Amino acid sequence: xxxxxxPTLVTERLRLEPLTTDxxxxxxxxxxxxxxQRFLRGRALAREEVLAQVPRRLRPEADAHRxxxxxxxxxxxxxxxxxxxxxxxxxxxxxxxxxxxxxxxxLRRDAWGHGYATEGARALLDHAFRTVxxxxxxAETMAVNTGSRGVMTKxxxxxxxxxxxxxxxxxxxWEEGEVRYEVDRASYLGG
Length: 191
Ligand SMILES: CC(C)(COP(=O)(O)OP(=O)(O)OC[C@H]1O[C@@H](n2cnc3c(N)ncnc32)[C@H](O)[C@@H]1OP(=O)(O)O)[C@@H](O)C(=O)NCCC(=O)NCCS
Hints:
This protein is of the alpha+beta class. It has helices at 24-31, 47-57, 60-64, 116-132, 146-155, 185-190; strands at residues 9-10, 15-18, 68-74, 77-86, 100-107, 136-142, 158-163, 178-184.
């Protein structure tokens, strides 16, 4: 893989460093908690399932645009990850530069309830709009995932859509649908 071009982001309490294969064991432990997976897969993930996801979390294409995944730390303790996943070529101008990205985050249960998720999300939005120059950032979750919706709202995203989808293996609460939140650069920087 080429040189990492995602910068380390530092906030009052957090150090967000580019996710690498060095963090693999931490990801295995994170996803082995069924509470962390409640609105994602609905059960703990096996080690092999987590390992299978690692390559797509380290895609060099995202890194080339200073986007991708960050591992978050506070006082030397691993908290979880945050990400900005660039949208595909269909959404990109001719030079291949992405104009929008999806925001995501997943924290260890013992890191919930401290405002870390929101603090990290704000750091990624600052990076997305001020440094990368994206036009729009969006995020999605299950409507019943109130914790995640709270993070989106506190970080400055606004609810734009609720959509009920059909799933092969639906999770409890699926009938409330998925929610999409968005923020664009002008309103983020202006607000
Ligand atoms: C979704 C998730 C990131 C939310 O984490 P969280 O810790 O609840 O989120 P926040 O960072 O907003 O912190 C929430 C609480 O910390 C508390 N808090 C404590 N100290 C704080 C501080 N210094 N600053 C701010 N908030 C603080 C607040 O009470 C706040 O809750 P409130 O705003 O409702 O009052 C977490 O539940 C998670 O990782 N879940 C598993 C993965 C997942 O579902 N991801 C999203 C899928 S799309």
